[in-house]
Amino acid sequence: MSIRNLKDGSDKPWKLDLRVDGRESKRIRKTFATKGEAAAYEVFVLKKVDAKPWLGEKVDNRRLSELIERWHDLHGRQLTQPAQRMTKLKMICGALGDPVAHKITVNDFANYRQMRLDGEVADAQGNKTKVKPNTINHEHAYLNTVFNTLKKLGEWSLPNPLDGIEQFKIEDIELAFLYKEEIPVVLNECANAKYEHLKTIVLICLATGCRWSEAEGLRGSQIAHNRITFVKTKGKKNRTVPIAQGLADILPRVRGPLFRPCRRSFEQAIKRTGLEFPDRQMTHILRHTFASHFMMNGGNILVLRQILGHSDIKDTMRYAHFAPDHLDDAITKNPIAAMLKYKGQNIE
User: Fold this and answer.
1) Which of 88, 155, 236, 305 could form a cystine bridge with 150, CB 3.0-4.6 A?
2) What is the pTM of this model?
3) What residues act catalytically?
4) DSSP 221
């Protein structure tokens, strides 16, 4: 028993003799005037310590950096770009001060977000730059995934400290695409570039809707029977897209890599055309062009999803409004449709 009466005639005969967590833990010995005082102090001490043997578990005092490393060992290594993800997570961890993970609050992360917006957080290179809300949303998702994944793996039993904080609402970005008359202009400039295969890469993007990196990294083994199979994709699923004979005929006939990196050459070619593209859509505009024209020419949205390799149909639905009959019911089913269907009808 941790509390006993010494019966020594002193004014503090009640002695508390307590080990907070087993035989090897810290020992507390203190005398009190009454048994009630000793019992109250015992409760106070046990509330202050992290170990709670009567609950059969200990408080998880691992720091955020330890959880990130554990997540990386159990899951993160399997990502497409694990090093980049770890760089981001370490930056977040450092900016938060590498706290004990269960003590992180939504207010801590809210303050971190504001610091990122104000350019007060240094990146891996030590640079402090302001970022856009969309970047912060990605970082929010990265840290959120650490806790959720560890919870699924039985490595984290406490609540996710980011629960309760919503991501920033982001306005839909402009999905720019090339008009029919602009496509020959772009192709002509690419044909005049120093790199002989630049035009071919652009044609592949326009014909299949693939990402620039997917076209640029093609190997001979990925092309057979007028079909291109894209591997190591962003969605981690291979997809095969048929191509016309005319395009198949101009592809290099080699077993290894077909092309060399030439994104910079494409940027220079676009600059020569005088065309202006939205920010960060220099090469992605080719993918948007394929998807937009596919829908304008009557393509099926589900087929488009399969061609683009979208895991979420919501990503593909961004192109739905390009369909010729998209929302045409608005013309015939509005409350004044009958008034407007007669030519020359005066509706004033």
Assistant:
1) 155
2) 0.67
3) 211, 234, 284, 287, 310, 319
4) G
